[in-house]
Design brief:
Shape: elongated
Number of helices: 20
CATH topology of the largest domain: 2-enoyl-CoA Hydratase, Chain A, domain 1
Strand content: 15-25%
CATH architecture of the largest domain: Alpha-Beta Complex
Bound molecules: hexanoyl-coenzyme A
Low-confidence stretches: none
Mean pLDDT: 95
Number of strands: 17
Largest sheet: 8 strands, mixed
Amino acid sequence: MTISAKLLADMQARRATAMAGGGDDKIKARHAKGLWTARDRLAALFQEGTFQETGTHVRHSCRNFGMEGKDLAGDGVVVGTGYVDGRPVAAISQDFTVAAGSLGKMHAQKIVSTMQAAGRMGMPMVAFKDSGGARIQEGVDALSGYGHVFYQNVLLSGVVPQIAVVCGPCAGGAAYSPALMDFIIMTRSNAHMFITGPEVIKAVTGKAVTMDQVGSAEMHASVSGNVHFLAEDDQHAVELVRRLLSYLPANNSEDPPHRPWADMSLLGDEGLYDLIPEQSNQPLEVRAIIARLVDDGSFLEVHADFAQNIVVGLARIEGMVVGVVANQPAVRAGALDMDAADKAARFVRFCNAFNIPLLTLVDVPGFLPGIEQERGGIIRHGAKMLFAYASSTVPKITVILRKAYGGSYLAMCSQEMGADFVFAWPTAEIAVMGAEGAINILYNKELKAADDRRAKAAELAADYRAEFASPYMSAGQGYISEVIDPAMTRATIALSLRKSLSKREVRPPKKHGNIPL
Ligand code: HXC
Protein backbone atom coordinates (compact mmCIF):
# COMPACT_ATOMS: atom_id res chain seq x y z
CA MET A 1 0.00 0.00 0.00
CA THR A 2 1.28 3.49 -0.74
CA ILE A 3 0.29 6.61 1.09
CA SER A 4 -2.10 8.72 -0.94
CA ALA A 5 -0.89 12.00 -2.41
CA LYS A 6 -3.96 13.65 -0.92
CA LEU A 7 -3.00 12.65 2.61
CA LEU A 8 0.54 13.88 2.11
CA ALA A 9 -0.65 17.18 0.66
CA ASP A 10 -3.04 17.62 3.57
CA MET A 11 -0.27 16.95 6.06
CA GLN A 12 2.02 19.43 4.34
CA ALA A 13 -0.68 22.09 4.18
CA ARG A 14 -1.42 21.69 7.89
CA ARG A 15 2.26 21.91 8.69
CA ALA A 16 2.68 25.00 6.52
CA THR A 17 -0.19 26.69 8.37
CA ALA A 18 1.45 25.94 11.70
CA MET A 19 4.83 27.21 10.43
CA ALA A 20 3.25 30.47 9.27
CA GLY A 21 2.48 31.41 12.89
CA GLY A 22 0.46 34.62 13.00
CA GLY A 23 0.85 35.12 9.24
CA ASP A 24 3.20 36.73 6.76
CA ASP A 25 2.20 40.31 7.55
CA LYS A 26 3.02 39.98 11.23
CA ILE A 27 6.30 38.23 10.49
CA LYS A 28 7.28 40.91 7.97
CA ALA A 29 6.38 43.64 10.45
CA ARG A 30 8.69 42.06 13.04
CA HIS A 31 11.54 41.68 10.60
CA ALA A 32 11.08 45.31 9.54
CA LYS A 33 11.68 46.28 13.18
CA GLY A 34 14.84 44.13 13.31
CA LEU A 35 13.13 41.57 15.57
CA TRP A 36 13.27 37.82 15.16
CA THR A 37 10.32 35.46 15.28
CA ALA A 38 10.02 32.47 17.60
CA ARG A 39 11.22 30.18 14.80
CA ASP A 40 14.11 32.50 13.82
CA ARG A 41 15.39 32.20 17.39
CA LEU A 42 15.25 28.41 17.40
CA ALA A 43 16.84 28.23 13.95
CA ALA A 44 19.75 30.36 15.20
CA LEU A 45 20.14 28.31 18.37
CA PHE A 46 20.13 24.80 16.92
CA GLN A 47 22.41 23.11 14.43
CA GLU A 48 20.72 22.99 11.06
CA GLY A 49 18.31 20.11 10.62
CA THR A 50 18.50 18.96 14.25
CA PHE A 51 15.36 20.63 15.62
CA GLN A 52 12.52 18.19 16.24
CA GLU A 53 9.34 20.06 16.93
CA THR A 54 6.59 18.59 19.07
CA GLY A 55 3.02 19.76 19.52
CA THR A 56 2.94 21.51 16.15
CA HIS A 57 -0.79 20.88 15.75
CA VAL A 58 -1.85 21.67 19.29
CA ARG A 59 -4.95 23.90 19.39
CA HIS A 60 -6.30 26.10 22.12
CA SER A 61 -9.11 24.76 24.23
CA CYS A 62 -10.95 28.00 24.88
CA ARG A 63 -14.69 28.19 24.18
CA ASN A 64 -15.24 31.75 25.41
CA PHE A 65 -15.13 35.34 24.23
CA GLY A 66 -15.19 34.64 20.50
CA MET A 67 -12.31 32.17 20.63
CA GLU A 68 -14.41 29.26 19.38
CA GLY A 69 -13.49 28.38 15.82
CA LYS A 70 -10.46 30.69 15.95
CA ASP A 71 -7.18 28.97 15.23
CA LEU A 72 -3.98 29.95 16.98
CA ALA A 73 -0.99 28.34 15.28
CA GLY A 74 0.69 25.94 17.73
CA ASP A 75 -1.23 27.84 20.42
CA GLY A 76 1.41 30.56 20.33
CA VAL A 77 4.50 28.60 21.29
CA VAL A 78 7.04 26.50 19.39
CA VAL A 79 8.66 23.68 21.40
CA GLY A 80 11.03 20.79 20.84
CA THR A 81 14.59 19.55 21.07
CA GLY A 82 17.70 20.00 18.96
CA TYR A 83 21.48 20.04 19.03
CA VAL A 84 23.67 22.92 20.15
CA ASP A 85 27.36 22.36 19.38
CA GLY A 86 26.75 18.63 19.22
CA ARG A 87 24.82 18.37 22.50
CA PRO A 88 21.05 17.89 22.92
CA VAL A 89 19.07 20.82 24.32
CA ALA A 90 15.33 21.35 24.83
CA ALA A 91 13.77 24.70 24.00
CA ILE A 92 10.52 26.58 23.99
CA SER A 93 9.96 29.80 22.05
CA GLN A 94 6.85 31.94 22.50
CA ASP A 95 5.42 33.24 19.23
CA PHE A 96 4.41 36.87 19.59
CA THR A 97 2.77 36.84 16.16
CA VAL A 98 0.10 34.49 17.56
CA ALA A 99 -2.16 36.36 20.03
CA ALA A 100 0.93 38.15 21.35
CA GLY A 101 2.40 34.83 22.53
CA SER A 102 -0.19 34.88 25.31
CA LEU A 103 -0.29 31.81 27.52
CA GLY A 104 -3.35 29.60 27.56
CA LYS A 105 -3.93 26.07 28.84
CA MET A 106 -2.52 24.19 25.82
CA HIS A 107 0.34 26.68 25.38
CA ALA A 108 1.33 25.94 28.98
CA GLN A 109 0.89 22.22 28.45
CA LYS A 110 3.37 22.31 25.54
CA ILE A 111 5.92 24.15 27.68
CA VAL A 112 5.45 21.77 30.59
CA SER A 113 5.78 18.62 28.53
CA THR A 114 9.00 19.96 26.97
CA MET A 115 10.37 20.66 30.43
CA GLN A 116 9.39 17.20 31.61
CA ALA A 117 11.19 15.70 28.62
CA ALA A 118 14.28 17.81 29.41
CA GLY A 119 14.22 16.45 32.96
CA ARG A 120 13.72 12.84 31.86
CA MET A 121 16.42 12.97 29.22
CA GLY A 122 18.76 15.11 31.30
CA MET A 123 19.24 17.95 28.85
CA PRO A 124 19.43 21.73 29.42
CA MET A 125 16.30 23.79 28.94
CA VAL A 126 16.25 27.12 27.06
CA ALA A 127 13.13 29.32 27.07
CA PHE A 128 12.58 32.34 24.81
CA LYS A 129 10.01 34.54 26.56
CA ASP A 130 8.08 36.92 24.33
CA SER A 131 4.50 37.10 25.52
CA GLY A 132 1.58 39.33 26.42
CA GLY A 133 1.12 37.18 29.54
CA ALA A 134 -1.92 35.23 30.64
CA ARG A 135 -4.37 34.79 27.75
CA ILE A 136 -7.26 36.88 28.95
CA GLN A 137 -9.98 34.76 27.32
CA GLU A 138 -8.78 31.62 29.08
CA GLY A 139 -9.15 33.02 32.57
CA VAL A 140 -8.24 30.61 35.32
CA ASP A 141 -7.03 28.02 32.79
CA ALA A 142 -4.22 30.47 31.95
CA LEU A 143 -3.40 31.03 35.61
CA SER A 144 -3.33 27.30 36.20
CA GLY A 145 -1.05 26.97 33.16
CA TYR A 146 1.43 29.35 34.77
CA GLY A 147 1.22 27.36 37.96
CA HIS A 148 2.19 24.18 36.11
CA VAL A 149 5.11 25.95 34.41
CA PHE A 150 6.43 27.35 37.71
CA TYR A 151 6.10 23.94 39.35
CA GLN A 152 8.18 22.35 36.58
CA ASN A 153 10.77 25.13 36.85
CA VAL A 154 11.19 24.21 40.49
CA LEU A 155 11.31 20.46 39.81
CA LEU A 156 14.01 21.02 37.17
CA SER A 157 16.04 23.37 39.38
CA GLY A 158 19.36 21.72 40.15
CA VAL A 159 18.59 18.83 37.77
CA VAL A 160 19.23 20.42 34.36
CA PRO A 161 20.50 23.94 33.63
CA GLN A 162 17.64 26.32 32.80
CA ILE A 163 18.28 29.45 30.75
CA ALA A 164 15.63 32.10 30.07
CA VAL A 165 15.93 34.59 27.24
CA VAL A 166 13.59 37.51 27.82
CA CYS A 167 13.27 38.98 24.34
CA GLY A 168 9.83 40.59 24.47
CA PRO A 169 7.25 41.57 27.07
CA CYS A 170 7.32 39.49 30.24
CA ALA A 171 4.76 41.02 32.56
CA GLY A 172 2.97 40.19 35.76
CA GLY A 173 3.31 36.79 37.34
CA ALA A 174 4.79 35.55 34.03
CA ALA A 175 8.12 37.04 35.14
CA TYR A 176 8.37 34.36 37.83
CA SER A 177 9.18 31.61 35.37
CA PRO A 178 12.48 33.25 34.26
CA ALA A 179 13.13 34.17 37.90
CA LEU A 180 12.92 30.47 38.84
CA MET A 181 15.49 29.51 36.19
CA ASP A 182 19.28 29.63 36.56
CA PHE A 183 20.14 32.48 34.22
CA ILE A 184 18.24 35.28 32.55
CA ILE A 185 19.52 36.84 29.35
CA MET A 186 17.54 39.93 28.31
CA THR A 187 17.63 41.91 25.08
CA ARG A 188 18.11 45.68 25.34
CA SER A 189 15.42 46.59 22.86
CA ASN A 190 11.84 45.32 22.80
CA ALA A 191 12.01 43.49 26.14
CA HIS A 192 10.43 44.57 29.42
CA MET A 193 9.95 42.58 32.58
CA PHE A 194 7.93 43.61 35.62
CA ILE A 195 5.35 42.43 38.12
CA THR A 196 3.29 45.62 38.03
CA GLY A 197 3.65 47.95 35.07
CA PRO A 198 3.29 51.74 34.79
CA GLU A 199 -0.52 51.67 34.52
CA VAL A 200 -1.05 49.66 37.69
CA ILE A 201 1.57 51.66 39.57
CA LYS A 202 -0.18 54.89 38.54
CA ALA A 203 -3.59 53.55 39.56
CA VAL A 204 -2.43 52.26 42.94
CA THR A 205 0.16 54.82 44.00
CA GLY A 206 -0.67 57.81 41.80
CA LYS A 207 2.97 57.91 40.71
CA ALA A 208 3.82 58.18 37.02
CA VAL A 209 6.71 55.96 36.01
CA THR A 210 8.04 54.85 32.64
CA MET A 211 8.21 51.31 31.32
CA ASP A 212 12.02 51.55 31.28
CA GLN A 213 12.17 52.63 34.92
CA VAL A 214 10.29 49.56 36.07
CA GLY A 215 11.37 46.95 33.60
CA SER A 216 14.16 47.71 31.12
CA ALA A 217 16.96 45.24 30.51
CA GLU A 218 19.54 47.79 31.73
CA MET A 219 17.65 48.33 34.97
CA HIS A 220 17.40 44.61 35.67
CA ALA A 221 21.03 43.99 34.77
CA SER A 222 22.43 46.77 36.95
CA VAL A 223 19.91 47.61 39.70
CA SER A 224 17.48 44.79 40.50
CA GLY A 225 19.95 42.03 39.65
CA ASN A 226 17.23 39.94 38.01
CA VAL A 227 19.14 39.76 34.73
CA HIS A 228 22.49 38.00 34.39
CA PHE A 229 23.40 38.95 30.82
CA LEU A 230 22.47 41.98 28.71
CA ALA A 231 22.11 41.15 25.01
CA GLU A 232 22.20 43.79 22.31
CA ASP A 233 19.63 41.94 20.19
CA ASP A 234 18.25 38.48 19.38
CA GLN A 235 21.41 37.38 17.61
CA HIS A 236 23.57 38.35 20.58
CA ALA A 237 21.17 36.65 23.00
CA VAL A 238 21.47 33.36 21.11
CA GLU A 239 25.27 33.67 21.04
CA LEU A 240 25.22 34.13 24.82
CA VAL A 241 23.06 31.01 25.26
CA ARG A 242 25.47 28.93 23.20
CA ARG A 243 28.50 30.29 25.02
CA LEU A 244 26.92 29.72 28.43
CA LEU A 245 25.95 26.15 27.52
CA SER A 246 29.57 25.44 26.51
CA TYR A 247 30.57 25.55 30.22
CA LEU A 248 27.66 23.54 31.58
CA PRO A 249 27.02 19.83 32.00
CA ALA A 250 23.80 18.49 30.47
CA ASN A 251 22.51 17.65 33.93
CA ASN A 252 23.50 17.35 37.58
CA SER A 253 24.78 13.79 37.29
CA GLU A 254 27.43 14.77 34.75
CA ASP A 255 30.62 16.75 35.11
CA PRO A 256 30.89 20.00 33.17
CA PRO A 257 32.67 19.67 29.80
CA HIS A 258 36.24 19.65 31.14
CA ARG A 259 38.85 19.20 28.45
CA PRO A 260 42.12 19.08 30.43
CA TRP A 261 45.11 19.92 28.29
CA ALA A 262 47.23 16.93 27.29
CA ASP A 263 50.38 18.73 28.43
CA MET A 264 50.25 20.65 31.68
CA SER A 265 51.91 24.04 31.50
CA LEU A 266 53.38 24.78 34.88
CA LEU A 267 55.37 27.86 33.92
CA GLY A 268 55.42 31.05 35.94
CA ASP A 269 53.91 34.32 34.74
CA GLU A 270 55.88 37.28 36.03
CA GLY A 271 53.63 39.65 34.08
CA LEU A 272 51.24 39.24 37.01
CA TYR A 273 53.56 41.30 39.23
CA ASP A 274 52.68 44.40 37.20
CA LEU A 275 49.02 44.03 38.19
CA ILE A 276 49.73 44.21 41.95
CA PRO A 277 49.76 47.83 43.23
CA GLU A 278 52.66 48.93 45.43
CA GLN A 279 50.46 49.92 48.35
CA SER A 280 47.80 47.70 49.87
CA ASN A 281 45.33 50.59 49.89
CA GLN A 282 45.63 51.11 46.14
CA PRO A 283 42.87 49.30 44.24
CA LEU A 284 43.69 46.22 42.26
CA GLU A 285 41.67 45.50 39.06
CA VAL A 286 40.61 41.94 39.67
CA ARG A 287 39.26 41.40 36.15
CA ALA A 288 42.81 41.88 34.85
CA ILE A 289 44.05 39.26 37.32
CA ILE A 290 41.30 36.81 36.33
CA ALA A 291 42.06 37.31 32.62
CA ARG A 292 45.68 36.38 33.33
CA LEU A 293 44.82 33.30 35.40
CA VAL A 294 42.30 31.67 33.06
CA ASP A 295 42.69 30.37 29.50
CA ASP A 296 42.82 33.22 26.97
CA GLY A 297 39.45 34.90 26.57
CA SER A 298 37.63 32.13 28.40
CA PHE A 299 36.09 34.24 31.19
CA LEU A 300 32.34 34.60 30.76
CA GLU A 301 31.31 37.12 33.38
CA VAL A 302 27.89 36.62 34.95
CA HIS A 303 25.99 39.58 36.43
CA ALA A 304 28.68 41.94 35.09
CA ASP A 305 26.71 45.13 35.74
CA PHE A 306 25.23 44.20 39.12
CA ALA A 307 27.01 44.49 42.51
CA GLN A 308 30.29 45.20 40.80
CA ASN A 309 32.21 45.00 44.08
CA ILE A 310 32.25 41.25 43.46
CA VAL A 311 33.01 39.55 40.15
CA VAL A 312 31.62 36.11 39.27
CA GLY A 313 31.76 34.07 36.09
CA LEU A 314 32.64 30.86 34.29
CA ALA A 315 36.04 30.16 32.80
CA ARG A 316 38.50 27.45 31.83
CA ILE A 317 41.91 26.82 33.31
CA GLU A 318 44.02 24.49 31.19
CA GLY A 319 40.75 23.34 29.67
CA MET A 320 39.02 22.64 33.00
CA VAL A 321 35.78 24.49 33.74
CA VAL A 322 35.71 26.64 36.90
CA GLY A 323 33.35 29.11 38.51
CA VAL A 324 35.28 32.19 39.63
CA VAL A 325 34.25 34.38 42.56
CA ALA A 326 36.51 37.39 43.17
CA ASN A 327 36.36 40.58 45.21
CA GLN A 328 36.74 43.71 43.10
CA PRO A 329 38.78 46.26 45.12
CA ALA A 330 38.28 48.81 42.32
CA VAL A 331 34.59 49.12 43.34
CA ARG A 332 33.65 50.08 46.92
CA ALA A 333 37.11 48.85 47.90
CA GLY A 334 35.75 45.34 47.29
CA ALA A 335 33.70 45.44 50.51
CA LEU A 336 30.86 42.92 50.65
CA ASP A 337 27.35 44.34 50.79
CA MET A 338 23.89 42.80 50.53
CA ASP A 339 23.78 42.67 46.73
CA ALA A 340 27.33 41.31 46.46
CA ALA A 341 26.48 38.58 48.97
CA ASP A 342 23.31 37.60 47.09
CA LYS A 343 25.15 37.58 43.77
CA ALA A 344 28.03 35.44 45.03
CA ALA A 345 25.87 33.03 47.03
CA ARG A 346 23.55 32.30 44.11
CA PHE A 347 26.47 31.73 41.75
CA VAL A 348 28.22 29.40 44.21
CA ARG A 349 25.04 27.35 44.59
CA PHE A 350 24.60 27.12 40.84
CA CYS A 351 28.18 25.86 40.45
CA ASN A 352 27.74 23.32 43.22
CA ALA A 353 24.46 22.05 41.78
CA PHE A 354 26.17 21.40 38.44
CA ASN A 355 29.53 20.05 39.66
CA ILE A 356 31.54 23.12 38.62
CA PRO A 357 34.68 23.60 40.78
CA LEU A 358 35.00 26.95 42.54
CA LEU A 359 37.97 29.29 42.42
CA THR A 360 37.74 32.14 44.94
CA LEU A 361 40.10 35.14 44.75
CA VAL A 362 40.18 37.18 47.94
CA ASP A 363 40.98 40.85 48.43
CA VAL A 364 38.31 42.07 50.82
CA PRO A 365 38.46 44.72 53.54
CA GLY A 366 35.27 43.46 55.24
CA PHE A 367 31.52 43.84 55.07
CA LEU A 368 30.40 47.34 54.09
CA PRO A 369 29.78 49.30 57.28
CA GLY A 370 26.64 51.43 57.58
CA ILE A 371 23.14 51.75 58.91
CA GLU A 372 21.63 51.04 55.49
CA GLN A 373 23.39 47.67 55.37
CA GLU A 374 22.54 46.70 58.95
CA ARG A 375 18.89 47.67 58.60
CA GLY A 376 18.70 46.03 55.19
CA GLY A 377 19.77 42.74 56.71
CA ILE A 378 23.45 42.34 55.86
CA ILE A 379 23.59 39.61 58.52
CA ARG A 380 20.98 37.61 56.63
CA HIS A 381 22.51 38.35 53.22
CA GLY A 382 26.11 37.78 54.28
CA ALA A 383 25.08 34.48 55.87
CA LYS A 384 24.03 33.28 52.42
CA MET A 385 27.66 33.29 51.34
CA LEU A 386 28.73 31.24 54.35
CA PHE A 387 25.85 28.85 53.77
CA ALA A 388 26.50 28.55 50.04
CA TYR A 389 30.21 27.84 50.40
CA ALA A 390 29.90 25.53 53.39
CA SER A 391 27.18 23.48 51.73
CA SER A 392 29.11 23.15 48.44
CA THR A 393 30.92 19.87 47.92
CA VAL A 394 32.61 20.66 44.58
CA PRO A 395 36.39 21.24 44.58
CA LYS A 396 37.05 24.62 46.22
CA ILE A 397 40.31 26.47 45.68
CA THR A 398 40.91 29.83 47.37
CA VAL A 399 43.71 32.28 46.70
CA ILE A 400 44.16 35.17 49.12
CA LEU A 401 45.70 37.98 47.07
CA ARG A 402 45.77 40.76 49.63
CA LYS A 403 43.23 41.65 52.32
CA ALA A 404 41.12 39.01 54.05
CA TYR A 405 39.63 40.61 57.10
CA GLY A 406 37.08 39.54 59.66
CA GLY A 407 33.89 37.78 58.66
CA SER A 408 34.61 38.44 55.02
CA TYR A 409 37.69 36.19 55.25
CA LEU A 410 35.33 33.35 56.12
CA ALA A 411 32.64 34.43 53.64
CA MET A 412 35.22 34.16 50.84
CA CYS A 413 35.69 30.42 51.35
CA SER A 414 38.45 30.07 53.89
CA GLN A 415 39.68 26.63 54.92
CA GLU A 416 36.97 26.40 57.61
CA MET A 417 34.26 26.79 54.95
CA GLY A 418 35.56 23.64 53.32
CA ALA A 419 38.17 24.95 50.90
CA ASP A 420 40.31 22.07 49.63
CA PHE A 421 43.28 24.34 48.98
CA VAL A 422 43.96 27.83 50.34
CA PHE A 423 46.91 29.66 48.84
CA ALA A 424 48.12 33.12 49.81
CA TRP A 425 50.36 35.62 48.09
CA PRO A 426 53.10 37.16 50.25
CA THR A 427 51.05 40.37 50.00
CA ALA A 428 48.14 38.73 51.90
CA GLU A 429 46.87 40.36 55.09
CA ILE A 430 44.70 38.07 57.17
CA ALA A 431 43.33 39.29 60.49
CA VAL A 432 40.27 40.10 62.54
CA MET A 433 40.19 43.61 61.12
CA GLY A 434 42.22 46.07 59.04
CA ALA A 435 45.36 47.64 60.53
CA GLU A 436 43.92 51.14 60.99
CA GLY A 437 40.87 49.97 62.92
CA ALA A 438 42.85 47.48 64.98
CA ILE A 439 45.56 49.87 66.18
CA ASN A 440 42.96 52.45 67.20
CA ILE A 441 41.51 49.86 69.54
CA LEU A 442 44.73 48.23 70.71
CA TYR A 443 46.92 51.33 71.05
CA ASN A 444 44.46 54.07 71.89
CA LYS A 445 46.54 55.36 74.83
CA GLU A 446 49.85 55.31 72.95
CA LEU A 447 48.30 57.17 70.04
CA LYS A 448 46.85 59.84 72.34
CA ALA A 449 50.22 60.32 74.02
CA ALA A 450 52.19 60.49 70.76
CA ASP A 451 53.63 63.84 69.60
CA ASP A 452 52.84 63.01 65.99
CA ARG A 453 49.74 60.84 66.05
CA ARG A 454 49.75 60.13 62.31
CA ALA A 455 53.38 59.02 62.25
CA LYS A 456 52.83 56.81 65.28
CA ALA A 457 49.71 55.32 63.72
CA ALA A 458 51.57 54.54 60.48
CA GLU A 459 54.39 52.88 62.41
CA LEU A 460 52.01 50.76 64.49
CA ALA A 461 49.98 49.84 61.39
CA ALA A 462 53.13 48.63 59.64
CA ASP A 463 54.03 46.50 62.69
CA TYR A 464 50.51 45.12 62.82
CA ARG A 465 50.59 44.14 59.14
CA ALA A 466 53.97 42.49 59.50
CA GLU A 467 53.15 40.60 62.69
CA PHE A 468 49.42 40.05 63.13
CA ALA A 469 48.27 40.04 59.53
CA SER A 470 51.19 38.28 57.85
CA PRO A 471 50.19 35.24 55.78
CA TYR A 472 52.97 33.33 57.55
CA MET A 473 51.12 33.75 60.82
CA SER A 474 48.08 32.03 59.28
CA ALA A 475 50.27 29.47 57.53
CA GLY A 476 52.03 28.83 60.86
CA GLN A 477 48.71 27.76 62.34
CA GLY A 478 47.83 25.58 59.35
CA TYR A 479 45.11 27.84 57.93
CA ILE A 480 46.87 28.26 54.59
CA SER A 481 48.07 25.37 52.41
CA GLU A 482 50.99 27.38 51.05
CA VAL A 483 52.27 30.92 50.53
CA ILE A 484 52.94 31.16 46.79
CA ASP A 485 54.80 33.38 44.36
CA PRO A 486 52.06 35.33 42.50
CA ALA A 487 53.78 34.36 39.24
CA MET A 488 52.94 30.72 40.01
CA THR A 489 49.24 31.30 40.71
CA ARG A 490 47.85 29.89 37.46
CA ALA A 491 50.16 26.88 37.55
CA THR A 492 49.29 26.23 41.20
CA ILE A 493 45.54 26.46 40.56
CA ALA A 494 45.77 24.24 37.47
CA LEU A 495 47.65 21.56 39.34
CA SER A 496 45.31 21.65 42.34
CA LEU A 497 42.27 21.63 40.10
CA ARG A 498 43.42 18.56 38.20
CA LYS A 499 43.97 16.71 41.45
CA SER A 500 40.59 17.65 42.82
CA LEU A 501 38.43 16.74 39.80
CA SER A 502 37.87 13.32 41.31
CA LYS A 503 36.72 14.82 44.63
CA ARG A 504 33.77 13.04 46.21
CA GLU A 505 32.33 14.41 49.40
CA VAL A 506 29.32 12.69 50.89
CA ARG A 507 27.17 14.47 53.45
CA PRO A 508 24.45 12.95 55.62
CA PRO A 509 21.13 12.91 53.76
CA LYS A 510 18.57 15.57 54.64
CA LYS A 511 15.53 17.06 52.96
CA HIS A 512 17.32 20.34 52.40
CA GLY A 513 19.16 22.92 54.45
CA ASN A 514 17.54 26.18 55.47
CA ILE A 515 19.54 28.87 53.67
CA PRO A 516 18.90 32.36 55.10
CA LEU A 517 16.72 34.00 52.42
C1 HXC B 1 -5.10 37.55 24.79
C2 HXC B 1 -3.79 39.15 23.80
C3 HXC B 1 -3.10 39.39 25.02
C4 HXC B 1 -3.48 38.62 26.14
C5 HXC B 1 -2.31 40.70 23.53
N1 HXC B 1 -3.26 40.00 22.91
N2 HXC B 1 -2.20 40.35 24.82
N3 HXC B 1 -4.76 38.25 23.70
N4 HXC B 1 -4.48 37.71 25.99
N5 HXC B 1 -2.87 38.75 27.32
C6 HXC B 1 -3.65 40.05 21.52
C7 HXC B 1 -4.22 41.39 21.12
O1 HXC B 1 -5.60 41.44 21.39
C8 HXC B 1 -3.94 41.41 19.63
O2 HXC B 1 -4.89 40.61 18.99
C9 HXC B 1 -2.60 40.70 19.54
O3 HXC B 1 -2.48 39.93 20.72
C10 HXC B 1 -1.44 41.66 19.49
O4 HXC B 1 -1.55 42.59 20.55
P1 HXC B 1 -1.35 44.15 20.37
O5 HXC B 1 -1.85 44.80 21.61
O6 HXC B 1 -1.94 44.57 19.06
O7 HXC B 1 0.22 44.22 20.23
P2 HXC B 1 1.20 45.35 20.76
O8 HXC B 1 0.66 46.70 20.42
O9 HXC B 1 2.55 44.96 20.26
O10 HXC B 1 1.16 45.23 22.35
C11 HXC B 1 1.61 44.07 22.98
C12 HXC B 1 1.30 44.08 24.50
C13 HXC B 1 -0.20 44.39 24.68
C14 HXC B 1 2.18 45.14 25.17
C15 HXC B 1 1.73 42.73 25.05
O11 HXC B 1 -0.97 43.54 23.84
C16 HXC B 1 -0.64 44.18 26.08
O12 HXC B 1 -0.43 45.04 26.95
N6 HXC B 1 -1.33 43.06 26.32
C17 HXC B 1 -1.88 42.74 27.60
C18 HXC B 1 -0.80 42.36 28.52
C19 HXC B 1 -1.35 41.95 29.85
O13 HXC B 1 -1.82 42.77 30.63
N7 HXC B 1 -1.36 40.63 30.08
C20 HXC B 1 -1.85 40.06 31.28
C21 HXC B 1 -0.73 40.24 32.31
S1 HXC B 1 -1.17 39.58 33.80
P3 HXC B 1 -5.35 40.88 17.47
O14 HXC B 1 -6.40 39.84 17.26
O15 HXC B 1 -5.87 42.29 17.49
O16 HXC B 1 -4.15 40.71 16.64
C22 HXC B 1 -0.60 38.08 33.72
C23 HXC B 1 -0.88 37.31 34.92
C24 HXC B 1 -0.03 36.10 34.96
O17 HXC B 1 0.01 37.67 32.82
C25 HXC B 1 -0.16 35.53 36.32
C26 HXC B 1 0.68 34.34 36.45
C27 HXC B 1 0.75 33.88 37.86
